[in-house]
Amino acid sequence: MGSCCSSSRTNKKTDDDENGESNNGHMGVDYFQRDEIDVSKYVCQELSNVTVVKEAGELNGQAFHIESCDNCIIYLLDHTAAVTIDLCNDCQIFVGPCKGSVFVRESKRCHIMASCQQFRARDTVQSTFQLHCTTQPVIENCSSIKFCCFSGFYPQLKDHLTVAGLSPLNNNWYSVHDFTPQSGNWVTLKREENLPSFGSDQVSSTSFQSNCSSRVVPRTLGIKFQDEYTKTSVVVFLEDSEHTRALKFIENVKEKLSLLITKDTKMKTNGLQQFFLNNAAAPPDLRDGMQIEYLLLAGDQCIQICSQALQEDPMNTTLNSYCSPNESQAWTDYQKLSHLIDSGIMNS
């Protein structure tokens, strides 16, 4: 058995190294931020049948490397710069907010729950990835992979998301890009209840929960499942800098409606004007660089439920929020918002 304090990585070269890319997935960036740090604190290597917990404050934005571990449970309950997971089998790994990339390589039968800016997996099989990923997850030469929405919680998660620069409302876990596409490579799951249990009783003192009812990162189903619903609504929040109104709204309607998509961005004036063109419900004060959060929800009586939830919260007014007035407009609203954001017209 090895140690979670192994002194160095293996010297194995990868294709990324040959191309001039460091192992944390960032071009030209040293794997660790400072030469004087004790690298052994940021490595788990050659471990078997153990549980490792890195508590808040232990990693403090450094990169972390996990390699050649078998049947281990590993918790990184802190924010990091980048995380690599190589040659691991039958492991459960939780990765708290990662400012850069989480990169999984040559691993088997692992269950990984991660919050990150970028997620990549290569040469990995029979594994489950529960993600909060602000960009499109990428896989290559992978098979029998399951994707599901991130569901983890620990007390410092909200603060660590802020430090890592990750919005809880930007989650593209379902929008997978496969460089080697073929049938059977991956599937998306609607609900994490279909997954095996995650974690260990040994970390009960940390208050980590793998399926918390009140989430920092909302559970979304993804646009793939929109076809199952005929009744949808778009709800928009303006200038909700700490996501307070949006998250409270989601909490209030979650038992009645399904949340398909959430987005958080900033808008140029022309993007705002195009979205609200000829819309009588448009907020009157539209300014360049305004923050916008939009939610796509679905379910019976969706418009009525959303409208009522907005009206019942005094923080929401016609000046800072919007709800599609009818079902026909709701899908038009979603298509317009998606087009504007994808084309860059909205982003300031």
From TrEMBL:
GO terms for biological process: post-Golgi vesicle-mediated transport. GTP binds at G100, S101, Q117, Q118, F119, R120. The keyword Repeat does not apply. Pfam families: TBCC (PF07986). It comes from the Eukaryota. It comes from Amphimedon queenslandica. Signal peptide: none annotated. It is a lipid-anchor. It is found in: Cell membrane. GO terms for cellular component: cilium; periciliary membrane compartment. The gene is 100633444. This is Protein XRP2.
